[in-house]
């Protein structure tokens, strides 16, 4: 797929803690950066009972409730993979786009490999914070989303909902790409 068209997909997740394996990925939100209304969302059953209280407080999730209402992890990851394949088609190459992409990509990569055997995004991710820092020649501390919102005039997302955050990230990504 050397000449494949790059399809930028904004991905955001919510988790019960800082690292995959020990903590659970609780929700996935994703959208095309070129068409945020084309999107994906799911909530997953926890894979661990471990959590950081502040993480659950921020997300508003309950591990007990997600054990009942969340999708089985393998089903959720399969559904996400199918959605990625549908939006990229036969000639597209999915590119993972995230705000603080190393964090979100680590969970997505871990879950794809553990539950499906491979990651359709491959081994890379495009980080919006690093992109902004490079384009604006700014400091790392100026890459906080609140600072980017102010500088780019992009409305911020409300709360920690993975889909709303993925759409917000897509809007930030698109605004950065228009900078000269």
Automatic annotation (TrEMBL):
Chain ranges of the Exonuclease domain: 7-180
Keyword presence, Acetylation: no
Gene3D superfamilies for this protein: Ribonuclease H-like superfamily/Ribonuclease H (3.30.420.10)
Keywords recorded for this protein, A-Z: Exonuclease, Hydrolase, Nuclease
Source taxon at top rank: Bacteria
Annotated InterPro entries: Ribonucl_H, RNaseH-like_sf, RNaseH_sf
Family matches, as SMART domains: EXOIII
Name of the featured protein: Exonuclease domain-containing protein
The organism's taxonomic lineage, starting at the top: Bacteria, Pseudomonadati, Pseudomonadota, Gammaproteobacteria, Enterobacterales
């Amino acid at each position: 797929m050397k000449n494949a068209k790059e399809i930028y997909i904004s991905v955001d997740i919510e988790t019960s803690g800082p690292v995959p394996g020990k903590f659970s990925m609780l929700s996935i939100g994703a959208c095309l950066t070129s068409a945020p209304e084309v999107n994906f969302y799911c909530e997953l059953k926890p894979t661990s009972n471990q959590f950081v209280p502040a993480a659950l407080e921020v997300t508003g999730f309950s591990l007990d409730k997600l054990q009942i209402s969340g999708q089985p992890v393998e089903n959720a990851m399969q559904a996400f993979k199918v959605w990625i394949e549908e939006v990229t088609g036969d000639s597209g190459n999915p590119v993972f786009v995230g705000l603080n992409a190393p964090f979100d990509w680590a969970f997505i990569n871990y879950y794809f490999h553990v539950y499906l055997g491979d990651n359709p995004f491959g081994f890379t991710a495009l980080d919006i914070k690093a992109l902004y820092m490079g384009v604006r020649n700014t400091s790392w501390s100026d890459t906080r989303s609140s600072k980017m919102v102010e500088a780019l005039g992009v409305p911020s997302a409300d709360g920690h909902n993975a889909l709303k955050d993925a759409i917000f990230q897509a809007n930030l990504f698109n605004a950065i790409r228009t900078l000269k």
